[in-house]
Amino acid sequence: MVNIFQSLLLVIAGATQKDLARQVKYLKVENQILRSRLPKRIVCTPKERVRLIKFARNLGGKVLRQLTTIVAPETLLGWIRAEKKPKPQKRKRGRPNTPEQIRQLILLMARENQWGYTRIMGELKKLGIKPPSRNTVKSILKAAGYEPGPRRGEGTWDDFLKQHAASLWQCDFFSKRILTLKGIREVFVLAFIHVETRRVILSQSTFQPNEAWVVAQAAAFVEQARTQKLRVATVQRDRDTKFTKAVDQVLRSKRVKPKVNEFRSPNTNAFVERFVQSIQQECLDRFVIFGEKHMDHVCREYLEHYHSERPHQGIGIGNELLVRKHNLKPAEAILLNEIQCSERLGGLLKSYQRKAA
């Protein structure tokens, strides 16, 4: 193929003007024959258009009108004129982007409330901010994973916990088989936990958790919680048959709302069940208990350790003590002789603190 072009160039270079005219005429005839075999309209690619413009721009309009066959002469001349004009800068289409500060404010309102996009637009307008369009606000909410419409009804279980944690308690029974003078018997304890602070109140143990006993413990719990300045508005319980209507009535009489878990929903009572798991694994499972008084003593010792000596890893607690008796200044390093170990229940429960100055 290269040799053919070289031969053609040699012929053209050595030709006279008359020879060139004859060769051009021949090439035009040949081009017309080839063109007649092709479709009436040929669409040029951008790359082909650039090549045509490159070789046609210096020929002049008169010559191009005689030579051009692949496209209309006026089309080729239009391409040449367009190429000489300065290209205009591309304009961004559509509306300008929403300022980042307004976008963050929209997400803040959606995160802290149950508002839909219409209410959020109203709040922006109230603040003197011209709100974006409805579709823009909806798009911002959807992109961040929020529903653009308002949340109606009771909401999710997480919503309930967040709204009521400061005054919500959960309660449940736990038991242990202990040794008595009458043999091995099962003893019961009723535990109440404050969801926000994880503070726990335990009842005295009993072999007979009948209705009268549960009613008395529920009433005593409310008084004890309020004495400790812990709010009590709702007590959540499972469907254990030991929680009778009389128990709910005594709670209502003290301005406390009982909330019964749904069927087959074990995770809804997770806070108190996690405490029961802790006291059993860390303490009760490692002891042989002799009688009710021994059981109450072990539970009291563990509860003191749980509140003031044991750091808690729960969400919102941050690996801190529930009840801190002394505020300590942080130190980068402490000598070992400045640390003392405290023990409870024969060394089963240990904690470390600085020695008093």
SSE order in H/E notation? HHHHHHHHHEEEHEHEHHEE
Based on helices, strands and strand pairing, what is the structural class? alpha/beta
Estimate nothing, just give the exact number of structural domains: 4
CATH topology of the largest domain: Nucleotidyltransferase, domain 5
Write a concise keyword list for the protein shown above.
357 residues; alpha/beta; 4 domains; five-stranded mixed beta sheet; two-stranded antiparallel sheet; 13 helices; elongated; RNaseH_sf; RNaseH-like_sf
Word description of this protein:
This protein has 357 residues and is α/β, with parallel strands linked by helices. It has four domains: 1-29; 39-85, no CATH class; 100-150; 162-326, 2-Layer Sandwich (Nucleotidyltransferase, domain 5), CATH 3.30.420. Helices cover 45% and strands 13% of the residues. The chain is built from 13 helices and seven strands. It has helices spanning 2-13, 17-36, 46-56, 61-67, 73-84, 100-112, 117-126, 134-143, 157-164, 211-227, 245-253, 270-282, 291-308, and strands spanning 168-180, 183-194, 200-202, 234-237, 257-260, 339-344, 349-354. The protein has a five-stranded mixed beta sheet, with helices on both faces. A two-stranded antiparallel ribbon has the order 6-7. Strand 1 and strand 2 (183-194) form a beta hairpin. The model has no long low-confidence stretch (mean pLDDT 81).
